[in-house]
């Protein structure tokens, strides 16, 4: 990573909803759910070690067999090897279409535009949409702020795993096959 991109990734983030990216208001902890996570046992898919769900994330980060298991899954659903990354557009950081400040992640771009450009009526090209295979790099949104809030309340990365050009039916079939193998 270059320094500006890394700094953008490391910025403290407000808690947001995992689906729509709306800011979460403070609430009470789900103690019953925490208790269930601490007392439910699971098995690592890499090394078959048994542990509680509460320990799984830290175990997965250090288990080389689990890392290999994940990479095998990635290879299984990837149609082409990712060794030639120069042909892939940057879908992780975006410039502001108003002031050309660079290296915003999707959430950062939405926040930046809401804070600094909410009253700007200039028609601009959405850099997020323009980076997508279906995006038109020449299309200027009549109301960019409304477009941002309607179209980019969530990240495409949440729903697309690696291949933006893949057919939806193919992806679903691959996911189903993978889930049957994991049982």
TrEMBL record:
Gene Ontology molecular function: ligase activity; ubiquitin protein ligase activity
PROSITE patterns cross-referenced by the UniProt entry: ZF_C2HC_RNF
Residue ranges constituting the C2HC RNF-type domain according to the UniProt record: 44-63
EC number assigned by the record: 2.3.2.27
InterPro entries listed in its UniProt record: Di19_Zn-bd, RNF_E3_ubiq-protein_ligase, ZF_C2HC_RNF, Znf_RING/FYVE/PHD
Keyword Ligase appears in the UniProt entry: yes
UniProt GO BP: protein polyubiquitination; ubiquitin-dependent protein catabolic process
Alphabetized UniProt keyword annotations: Ligase, Transferase, Ubl conjugation pathway
Top-rank taxon: Eukaryota
Reaction catalyzed: S-ubiquitinyl-[E2 ubiquitin-conjugating enzyme]-L-cysteine + [acceptor protein]-L-lysine = [E2 ubiquitin-conjugating enzyme]-L-cysteine + N(6)-ubiquitinyl-[acceptor protein]-L-lysine
The UniProt record lists the keyword Ligase: yes
Pathway(s) per entry: Protein modification; protein ubiquitination
Protein name as annotated: RING-type E3 ubiquitin transferase
């Amino acid at each position: 990573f270059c320094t500006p991109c890394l700094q953008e990734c490391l910025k403290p983030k407000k808690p947001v909803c995992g689906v729509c990216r709306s800011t979460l208001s403070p609430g009470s902890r789900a103690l019953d759910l925490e208790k269930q996570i601490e007392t439910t046992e699971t098995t690592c898919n890499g090394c078959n070690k048994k542990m509680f769900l509460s320990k799984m994330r830290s175990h997965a980060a250090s288990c080389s067999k689990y890392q290999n298991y994940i990479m095998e899954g990635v290879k299984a659903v990837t149609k082409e090897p990712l060794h030639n990354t120069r042909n892939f557009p940057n879908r992780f950081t975006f410039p502001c279409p108003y002031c050309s400040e660079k290296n915003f992640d999707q959430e950062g771009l939405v926040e930046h535009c809401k804070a600094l450009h909410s009253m700007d009526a200039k028609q601009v090209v959405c850099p997020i949409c323009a980076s997508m295979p279906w995006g038109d790099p020449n299309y200027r949104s009549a109301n960019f702020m409304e477009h941002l809030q309607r179209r980019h309340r969530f990240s495409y990365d949440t729903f697309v795993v690696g291949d933006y050009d893949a057919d939806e039916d193919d992806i679903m079939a691959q996911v189903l096959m993978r889930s049957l193998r994991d049982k």
